[in-house]
Amino acid sequence: MSQTIVCAKQGIPLILLSHTEFSDWRLEQSQYVQTWLENTQYEGKGLCLIPSETGELSCALFCSHNLQEFFASADIVKQLPKSQFKLECDESIKLNAAISWGLSHYQFELYKKSGSPKAILAVDNQNIVDQANHFVNAIHLVRDMINTPAGDMMPEHMAKTVEDLAQQFGAQFSQIVGDDLLTENYPTIHAVGRASVHEPRLLDLHWGNPQHPKVTLVGKGVCFDSGGLDIKPTAAMRLMKKDMGGAAHVLGLAYLIMSHNLPIQLRVIIPSVENAVSSNAFRPGDVITTRQGITVEVDNTDAEGRLVLCDALNEACNDKPDVIFDFATLTGACRVALGTELPGFFSTEPKIASDLMQIGQEIDDPVWQLPLHKAYRSLLSSDVADISNCAATPFGGAITAALYLQEFVTPETPWLHFDVMAWNNRKLPGRPVGGEAFGIRTVFEYLKQQYPG
Question: What is the domain range of residue 144?
């Protein structure tokens, strides 16, 4: 993705105003501009291109009811000519305007290059430019990973992505591959991924000062989910390249943390597998002894995400981190409850949950807490093992999945589990159809406030 946000003082003025500011601004303009606005019947809503008296573009004016909305000005990127524009707006909205500008330019170009030039945004503040590009790069990373077809985003490809990120920021990267997962006691990750020719693996990134507070991110990295022997129907399988969306989310969040050099000790753990069908695929009715020693009866092989996550969460707790965040495209039930554009999350820490919801509303990256309703734990009972990987009823499916994961998190460890769609089903300002990051701006803002530099 080419750079579309630069530090410069030159460019066609791009003026962002709230609707209430427009009248006063208009009165301050030349008679020529006022006449142009009158003749074009512009009334302070949307984009207006104002030419000079010689016919050249003099400035671009955009007015919105609420410029504090994160994507308020996002759509102007597609309407402007491919020139350089200098951002002129209130300081309080410059960063958001710059980020939304960069996100609006996103195109997935791995196989189909657009080749078209892009409008450039000039901002006269290097710090804002740097921050904006960090956010844009992080979210583009999430989108690119999710949009990449499974054939080019299998566990070995994901490992290369994590390794490249580690090298970029001076982090340490390691991985456990194939049958070594059994030697190192990650049996559920191995069981889910063993049927694929793409060996399952546990990816592990460490970054930061060991003296700083520990923050651990865990992401579901199911690179393709056929459903296993409980195979999905065609329609349900079509977008399963996005089932590694949780892994993409934690890598995007890690990018933000490392690029902003937050004073934390970061660890990222990704169980990366393909849930394939073969002669050695795990089966409904199988019992697996997890890393923690809990036995799990496989009720449904299509509930594989929680299986790979449970070993990873158990490992995450070994470091006694200050907080664990996990992201996963875990359940359709969460989408039924909240729709595809509002990510649900579960938390063992009410204060963190409250802070996240408030921050999400403030920065226009909403998240919504769902309950860890303990009474539903009995729905995971098994006659032959300590727990079943799937409840007998589909009702409350996001809750029972979260309750399953909670079994593998030590009670004293603050833990938050995000159940995300990772995909835009419809085109929105700054958000094309396809892979998408949900909630990572909110979690990053929480961490930035919690651990200021």
Answer: 136-450
